[in-house]
């Protein structure tokens, strides 16, 4: 009699487009190659399901009809993570024993953990605690080390680009400065790609601190050239050169006392004062993470999911599936979890944008 392979699925951290496509990829490829010799358990709400032993036994049909669905059919959650040390509850209690207990009780061969930058790091803790783990890189931020791209990213770029496309006509009609703030945490990938794709005039990224006076000068220069509106794509983590000198604590205090909820609102108010021109802010927020994955992400998430199933069949655990130079690769999880992939300031795409006259505020 053939041995049954038992796999747990976990979607963890902020959701994004393509999670269901990846779940489907893993599930269908396992059934395809192992026939009925596989049992799959979907953990509800990410690690929460693993901690509480709250899961769904998934049959083949559960993996059908979900390719285009946004979000995750399993639900997700964020857990408190002490960097490199532990996943803990509100009282600081280590949750690893509970997770290991569920893993052992279900007699799992492996967990497939789909998550962002933080999840790769916490999945490594599970690996260190003796569980077999294969991970998939999902995030709109594209900030996971060891992979050129992540699923969810391209869908979010499409949405960010679409928002700026629509803002263009109203900005132009009213001769206004428009700031469109995009997600990405402390990495500028999403804003850079959406900004270039939509023809933003100024792109402000966390990796390139901006100089306020230089932005004002760029807007005035545009006016002299007959361009009476300016579109600024602002990454949510963008920071001025002055604020960059401050400690995180001081920056947090300034934000709290400024009366502005995000960097774009603060900058808009400062720009109105300095230029005398009306400024408006659009923050698409979580809209960037919602809705169906774009075709690119459907393909990528399917490739990643199928590759995870292959790793499980080969018993090649402790790896993250990634994409490097167009090839699907298995990256050691220790490497993927070792750092965050920020946008290099000398990235060729930044130079391309500079060559087009796009201004980065520096
Ligand atoms: O990491 C994905 C992301 O959408 C970031 O771009 C953003 O800063 C953050 O999550 C928002 O988190 P939450 O969904 O918890 O508000």
In words, what does this structure look like?
The termini are far apart. The protein has a seven-stranded mixed sheet with strand order 3-2-1-6-7-12-13, with helices on both faces. A four-stranded parallel sheet has the order 9-10-8-11, sandwiched between helices. The model has no long low-confidence stretch (mean pLDDT 97). It has 13 helices and 13 strands. Helix 1 packs parallel to helix 11, helix 5 packs across helix 6 and helix 7 crosses helix 10. It is elongated and about 80 Å long. 49% of the residues are buried. The chain has two domains: 192 residues, Rossmann fold, CATH 3.40.50; 134 residues, Rossmann fold (3-Layer(aba) Sandwich), CATH 3.40.50.460. Helices cover 41% and strands 18% of the residues. The protein is α/β, with parallel strands linked by helices. Strand 12 and strand 13 form a beta hairpin. The structure holds 6-O-phosphono-beta-D-fructofuranose. The site of 6-O-phosphono-beta-D-fructofuranose has 10 residues, from loops.
């Amino acid at each position: 009699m053939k041995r049954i392979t038992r796999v747990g699925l976990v979607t963890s951290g902020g959701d994004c487009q393509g999670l269901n496509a990846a779940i489907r990829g893993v599930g269908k490829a396992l059934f395809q190659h192992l026939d009925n010799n596989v049992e799959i358990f979907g953990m509800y709400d990410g690690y929460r399901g693993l901690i509480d032993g709250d899961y769904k036994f998934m049959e083949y049909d559960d993996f059908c009809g979900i390719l285009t669905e946004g979000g995750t059919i399993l639900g997700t959650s964020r857990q408190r993570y002490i960097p490199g040390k532990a996943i803990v509850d509100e009282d600081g209690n280590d949750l690893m024993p509970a997770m290991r207990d569920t893993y052992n009780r279900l007699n799992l061969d492996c967990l497939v953990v789909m998550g962002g930058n933080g999840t790769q790091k916490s999945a490594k803790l599970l690996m260190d605690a003796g569980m077999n783990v294969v991970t998939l890189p999902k995030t709109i931020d594209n900030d996971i080390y060891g992979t050129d791209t992540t699923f969810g990213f391209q869908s979010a770029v499409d949405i960010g680009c679409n928002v700026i496309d629509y803002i263009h006509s109203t900005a132009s009609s009213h001769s206004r400065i428009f700031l469109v703030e995009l997600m990405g945490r402390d990495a500028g990938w999403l804003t850079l790609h959406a900004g270039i794709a939509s023809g933003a005039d100024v792109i402000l990224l966390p990796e390139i601190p901006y100089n306020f006076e230089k932005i004002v000068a760029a807007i005035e220069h545009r006016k002299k050239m007959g361009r009476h509106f300016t579109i600024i794509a602002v990454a949510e983590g963008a920071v001025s050169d002055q604020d960059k000198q401050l400690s995180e604590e001081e920056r947090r205090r300034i934000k709290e006392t400024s009366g502005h909820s995000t960097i774009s609102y603060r900058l808009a108010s400062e720009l109105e004062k300095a230029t005398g021109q009306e400024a408006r802010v659009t923050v698409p927020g979580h809209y960037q993470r919602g809705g169906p994955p774009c075709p690119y992400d459907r393909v990528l998430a399917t490739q990643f999911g199928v590759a995870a199933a292959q790793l499980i069949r080969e018993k090649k655990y402790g790896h993250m599936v990634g994409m490097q130079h167009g090839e699907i690769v298995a990256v050691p999880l220790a490497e993927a979890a070792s750092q965050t992939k920020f946008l290099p300031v000398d990235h060729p795409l930044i130079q391309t944008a500079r060559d087009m006259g796009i201004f980065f505020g520096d």
